[in-house]
Amino acid sequence: MTTREAPHVDAVLPPDVLDALQAAVGAKAVIVAADALEPYRIEERGLFRGTCAAVVQPATTEEVAAVVRICAAAGLPIVPHGGNTGLVGGGVPRGGIVLSTARLNRIRALDAANRTITVEAGVILADVQRAADEADALFPLSLAAEGSCRIGGNLATNAGGIAVLRYGNARDLVLGLEVVLADGRILSGLSGLRKDNTGYDLKQLFIGSEGTLGVITAAVLKLFAKPKVSVTALAALGNVEAAVALFQHCNAAAGDSLSAFELISGRAMDFCLQHIPGVTPPFDRPPPYSVLIQLASTRANDPLAEAAEALLADAFEAGLIEDAVIAASDAQANALWRLRESIPEAQKAEGGSIKNDISLPLSAVPTFIGEASKAVEDAMPGIRVVAFGHLGDGNIHFNLSQPVGADRASFMAAWDRLERIVSDIAMALGGSFSAEHGIGELKVDVLRRYKSEVALDVMRAIKRTLDPKNIMNPGKVIIDA
């Protein structure tokens, strides 16, 4: 895949529209200089490059509503924009304006008794986590980009991350939502109720919609009791079948204290050891597979270290694991997590990388990795499979690195062909081609390939109803037939 450039569109706002936008949000909050627009035109991996006439930065929900009304009257596309950490081109503009949520950055309320926090869409995820921590609570959504991604984007893409096993995806962490609709009306649903059985659950329409139905401006999020003790371990295994069996063993032995279960292939570990400074080898040599395990408890006196030692000893006796290390300090635990979280960065040093975000029933993961590895290796001799991810919830990042010495551009041009091979196998096994990254622009055609016509018709009907002028992030997720 080469960089997908936006088709030529008029990148200048009509004077009356520019004047109206500046009046709505202030002249300084409407960016039109070409060099200042550049960071908003590209996505993190460089696969897409778009164009826009302006970036508008409203500071309140009312200002967002005013901006949307102006754009709706002018028929001007709007692309909501958070931290620009998405991986499927969902935030790349195709004309019109970018609506940045950066100034919607207030934490409106924290209700400790109700275990909720109300935040605006532009609050950085790490700041939500920090505010919860200061209140002796936990907001569990956690992913590699948490220092720069914004909560509105996390909700608009239904982000996953490392804590899904215990706490669920982003949509499971939301009680209420405030959204500006495509006509500029404000849908205000900032309720902290856990039970509200009064008709359709409208917030779920917008969570995961990637800005195609409206602009999320604020949310009421669930908080949880903060873990008081945790233990992290890394186990070495001979194959994926053993990893699945180890999960069953850990789940039975540790119960709800099992909070993370991450798969790392030998090649992924080897790449990290080669390319990430400061990463130390946990074993004498990278095993075929490793699993990073975390146990956590809200009870300060829980003997989790002893529990981890016992379950790993039992797993060793049963032949499930070949070796294991248990972190003896926070520094050692962080080092193990750094190994897992550095895999995407380490892959960059090996040339072109084709990403596949696959979800499967846990029982089907070994079959998938075996069949998909053979299929892509047959299709392109020398290709290097880098499999890792959230095994505990069935999400495998089945990434493909270019053959050693291959031309990067030629390899990336095979993206669609190799993606189809991988996705066909995942779908045949009852899986999904998008576990947590979303659809964006990258996977629009893939969605049409696999979704039923009935499902697509319902999605189109929702889009037409909520966005009849097709101004909300057009060209993403669902395209009208």
UniProtKB/TrEMBL annotation:
Native source species: Candidatus Defluviicoccus seviourii
Cofactors demanded by this protein: FAD
Record-given protein name: Hydroxyacid dehydrogenase
Family stated for the protein in its record: Belongs to the FAD-binding oxidoreductase/transferase type 4 family.
SUPFAM superfamilies per the UniProt record, alphabetical: FAD-binding/transporter-associated domain-like, FAD-linked oxidases, C-terminal domain
Pfam families: FAD-oxidase_C, FAD_binding_4
Key word Flavoprotein present: yes
GO biological process: respiratory electron transport chain
Electron transport is among the record's keywords: no
GO molecular function, one term: FAD binding
Record-annotated FAD-binding PCMH-type domain positions: 48-226
Key words, A-Z: FAD, Flavoprotein
